[in-house]
Amino acid sequence: MNAARMVAATDVSVLLLGEPGSGKSSLARDIHTASPRRKDRFLEFACTGAPEGDLAACVAGMEAQRATLYLSEVSELATNDQARLLNLLARQDSAARSAQLRIIAGSTRDLNALVQEGRFRRDLYQRLCVVPLEVAPLRERVLDIPLLTEHFMVLAASRHGLDAPSLKAGAERLLRRYHWPGNLRELGNLCERLVILLPGAEIGPENLPREVRRGDVSAETAPGFELPPQGIDLNSLEAELIRQALSLAGGNKSRAARLLGLTRDTLLYRLQKHLIPG
Ligand SMILES: Nc1ncnc2c1ncn2[C@@H]1O[C@H](COP(=O)(O)OP(=O)(O)OP(=O)(O)O)[C@@H](O)[C@H]1O
């Protein structure tokens, strides 16, 4: 990721946006490792469910250090902690460069939309989002799937002292077609399971879980949808769903595309087709 390499060389706050398990936390660590702070501490703070005040306790000993702090799921930060973080950032402005904490935040939710709804402080959003980086979901990186699968299998095989299995072409095709709601974490878990259950084997489609074998996106994306007896106007329905996805995603096309299980390019094509202003 080029942009990530570029921000690593600086001290700016970075906001990583992406689905669960897409690799935000790993990317935050990579940015730290590629930065001039690589020899300093990297600390991860999980905002989800964190008791109020925990963030203050976490950064108390770090304020005078040249560390990197990664805030995962920053949208879940309690209101008072949002104010505390803002204060911390203000204090950092006047601190010596050698004592500055670098903040990287991660979010699964559309932080901009939460700001519009008044559920996240705009001033804090602006401080955190100096450089926003989108981490693509795995289904938009299908070309990477064979290499990632091999990587996860080799890793799990060495962890468990077993032989890594290999993939038959049919199995690989299914992995590329599946929509991976759990992203890299889901692929990593599947690879580990295959290593343990079928060490050294040739994996065929029959060895993959049912949801992957089905490669069936519609079952997940249209639960319970039934065609009414009088039929529907598919074209209008598609246009309406696209409008709703854009609105839910606060106008962000990559996110809207993800809500519809499409690539961004396909969404752009369909926006043109339906003459929907993007
Ligand atoms: N580039 C990569 N190559 C190989 N494995 C990766 C890569 N990025 C992430 N992973 C692995 O994928 C899994 C999920 O990554 P990570 O925890 O960074 O995702 P996340 O987006 O922060 O998840 P969450 O939103 O649930 O916190 C981890 O096991 C991680 O080691």
How would you describe what is shown here?
- InterPro entries: AAA+_ATPase, AAA_lid_NorR, Homeodomain-like_sf, HTH_Fis, P-loop_NTPase, Sigma_54_int, Sigma_54_int_dom_CS.
- Pfam families: AAA_lid_14, HTH_8, Sigma54_activ_2.
- Keywords: ATP-binding, Nucleotide-binding, Transcription, Transcription regulation.
- Residues 1-196 form the Sigma-54 factor interaction domain.
- The protein is of the alpha/beta class.
- Helix content is 49%, strand content 10%.
- The chain has 14 helices and 7 strands.
- A 5-stranded parallel beta sheet has the order 2-3-4-1-5, with helices on both faces. A two-stranded parallel ribbon has the order 6-7.
- Helix 7 (145-160) crosses helix 9 and helix 12 packs across helix 13 (253-259).
- The chain starts with a helix and ends in a 5-residue tail after the last helix.
- Bound molecules: adenosine-5'-triphosphate.
Summarize the structure.
This is Sigma-54-dependent Fis family transcriptional regulator. With 278 residues, this protein is of the alpha/beta class.
- Into how many domains do the coordinates divide? 3
Mean pLDDT: 88
Unreliable runs: 216-220
Instruction: Tell me the distance between the termini.
Output: 26 Å
Apparent shape: globular
Q: Could you tell me the number of beta strands?
A: 7
Strand content: 5-15%
Bound molecules: adenosine-5'-triphosphate
- At the fourth level of CATH, the homologous superfamily of the largest domain is P-loop containing nucleotide triphosphate hydrolases
Q: Report strand order across the widest sheet.
A: 2-3-4-1-5
GO molecular function: ATP binding; sequence-specific DNA binding
Protein name: Sigma-54-dependent Fis family transcriptional regulator
Domain Sigma-54 factor interaction: 1-196
Organism: Thiorhodococcus minor
